[in-house]
Amino acid sequence: MATATDKQRPRLKNLDDLFMLNQDAMPQPNAELPSPATKRFQAVVDLDRLIPFAGHPFHLYEGERLDDMVESIRNNGVLVPIIAREKGNQLEILAGHNRVNASRLAGMTAIPAILLKDVSDEEAWIYVVETNLMQRSFADMSHSEKAAVISIQHSKMFSQGKRNDILAELKRLESPQQEKDGTSRQVGEQSHSDELVATMYGLSSRVVSRYLRIHKLIAPLKTMLDVGDIAFIPAVTLSFLKEQEQVGLAKCVELNGFSVDMKKADVLRDYSGKGKLDDDRIYLILNGELGQKQKPNRTPVVKVNKAVYSKYFQPNQSAKEVQDIVEKALEMYFSQ
Prior knowledge:
Order of helices and strands: HHEEHEEHEHHHHHHHHHHHHH
Distance between the termini: 80 Å
Largest sheet: 5 strands, mixed
């Protein structure tokens, strides 16, 4: 169900709409785009010049989805330019990591790109996050990807004012008439970052806080969370472990195939808080030998088969009488 926040949040169908490009009207290489933004142009660039965005939080396609993209590029080429920014002598990808990866696998040597000049790290993160959200919904992302998006948008670096400026520019590209009529308005309003993120994605403040913790996990533990080897709430607890402790935990799980449930996660966090968590204790905790409550010794209950009972006892015999007979029989048995 659409909310008021959804209406404020512009969404474009694809990157063709974003930069007003299509297969029939592609500018020539190095020609300037008819865009109100400055320092942006299109070119065909060598794949060797492209580097992934530092800290790119989104998973690359795998399996059939990747195979389909590779086949499509072999047959049709790359129809939608990637977005990259100049970084020294190289070009850092802001949008299009999957297209670049698939192009390499398809044997391509060059790819069409929208090149941005003088883009700050803050603006680059906005392009990375927003263009990914244009391609798929937040709900379709993995836990680690959601955690990255929420953490980035929650951070002080991710200025809501700067984000509003870029989203307003994208909205003008989508609806040029608004700019001509002077009816374009600011997208979103200033707000506390936690409230803003919670409202943006329909999440409670508690869930936002948990995703902020998930972002503090090391990459191997995030992968285990995404594939279901670790459940979400235990993963939140594990995020409180120190980085080196998380490294030891990930290695122990991978080598021994241990599971990490909520009880074990709590014990791990408790030992970490006391400064007593090392590789040996991690193994013992995951193996169930450390931190588990001792079960009280209980006398086992022995049930006698109904046919055996009826063979030696009468239905009207009392329990005490039956017990006395059994005791005498056992004494005779063991005395021999």
